[in-house]
Amino acid sequence: MMRLKCNIGRGPVDPCSTAARGPREGGLTIDGSDLTGRPVHVIGGGLAGSEAAWQLAGRGVPVVLHEMRPGRQTPAHSTGGLAELVCSNSFRSDDAETNAVGLLHEEMRRCGSLVMAAADAARLPAGGALAVDRGRFSDTVTAALADHPLVQLARGEVAGLPPADWDQVIVATGPLTSPALTQAIAALTGAEALAFFDAIAPIVDADSIDPAITWRQSRYDKVGPAGTGSDYINCPFDRDGYDAFVAALTAAECVPFKDWERDTPYFEGCLPIEVMAERGPDTLRFGPMKPVGLTDPRTGRRPFAVVQLRQDNALGTLYNLVGFQTKLRHGEQLRVFRTIPGLERASFARLGGIHRNTFLNAPRLLDQQLRLKAMPRLRFAGQITGCEGYVESAAVGLLAGRFAAAERQGGVLVLAPPPTTALGALLGHITGGADVASYQPMNINFGLFPPPDGRIKGRDRKRAQSARARADLAPWLADQPAPPTPAFAG
């Protein structure tokens, strides 16, 4: 197979230019009479776009993967790597028995997911969660796609709607879609994209954390992938210290909103720490600062509240403050966060920040195959569809890639995965299960699944739903084989 040449141009792609429209692109001959040889264009090299490209190429479909970075950066990214993680480094729980996102992990692994294979290769100790080394994760995804003979990586912004002769396009530009493309999509759909805010948590240097005050422990000493049960660094608060911290947090000055950001709602699953604190004095200690499952070895008791720090890189030199996404001014972050016990002399490798995310009202605008009803040659994937979370974004990219590959190879659409599976439940929510009038970003959860038979409650209910999902996924996978799972050294 011919090795595709990489387009390393960094300027915007002008939809009206000859270079943008063909007749040849990066060594791929475009012949209007042979659709099977034409590439599918994937716009956006984040988790969803990378996964979609992998699924397409794994089925023998040529792909042009467009990524505007590093020539044009977003407010949150800092590199040109594919699948760069800009918020947390956690893929959340890896428990496939009683946690919906853990079940989604398993289903994606069974589907030959590149994102999950790379995450497993870059995993870090994180109790029952799957956390990754950001750099290694992105490098692994980038290398896998760059080395694939059917993938062409095209550097440059797609400014506006894709050219008309791009007959199949997956738009996976994520929550930070460029203004030109956002405006074009809004004009096409006749409706403005909805928007919310997403925030970034601070990262501290590990050697600046005071070991005389903190201790290492996962909640309930839980051991997860690559974990030991002592994977988090815990900073304990007594009642007086907690009250003083909350007071300082709520009094601190935040970065003011820009005019275009006003009246844009936060996503409830990623609220800034100061916004949570304003909801009541006990909100934090029943939220990200809850002390359950932890025992301070100095006192032998559970602390009144606790701040947990999670390893952020493979070397163990950086830790992020779990749940501490914030819009505080940088000087205020240094002042307030250094009142956390054990962080009095903390050196911050990165301070928190916040950016606006945009997403479509997907239940109204997209069909069951993730195609835009107003222009079916465009599919959408990832956070722009209104799913929330790294894994969910990649999962929707996986489905979009499968749907596009089947359509390219014969025009027969792939059936959606059963609604009893995590993949099917997520897709169903995005493409019709949610209320159009109140559609908001959603993480995968068992509330999106059809209820199990019988009156089962608690963890037994979740186990029953997980078992049913595994059973129901098997025949769907048999009809739609996965691409070979990439083998990366762990």
Architecture overview:
This protein has 2 domains: 18-193 and 360-479, FAD/NAD(P)-binding domain (3-Layer(bba) Sandwich), CATH 3.50.50; 199-357, Elongation Factor Tu (Ef-tu), domain 3, CATH 2.40.30. A 6-stranded mixed sheet has the order 8-4-3-9-19-18, covered by helices on one side. Strand 6 (123-124) and strand 7 (129-132) form a beta hairpin. It is 29% helix and 16% strand. By secondary structure, it is an alpha+beta fold.
SSE topology:
Layout: H1 18-21, E1 24-25, E2 28-29, E3 40-43, H2 47-58, E4 63-67, E5 90-93, H3 100-110, H4 114-121, E6 123-124, E7 129-132, H5 134-146, E8 151-155, E9 169-171, H6 179-189, E10 194-200, E11 203-205, E12 215-216, E13 232-237, H7 239-251, H8 273-277, E14 305-311, E15 318-321, H9 330-337, E16 348-350, E17 353-359, H10 362-365, E18 371-372, E19 375-380, H11 390-410, H12 422-433, H13 458-479
Parallel strand pairs: 3-4, 3-9, 4-8, 9-19
Antiparallel strand pairs: 1-2, 5-7, 6-7, 10-17, 11-15, 11-16, 12-13, 13-14, 14-15, 18-19
Helix pairs in contact: 2-11, 3-11, 3-13, 4-5
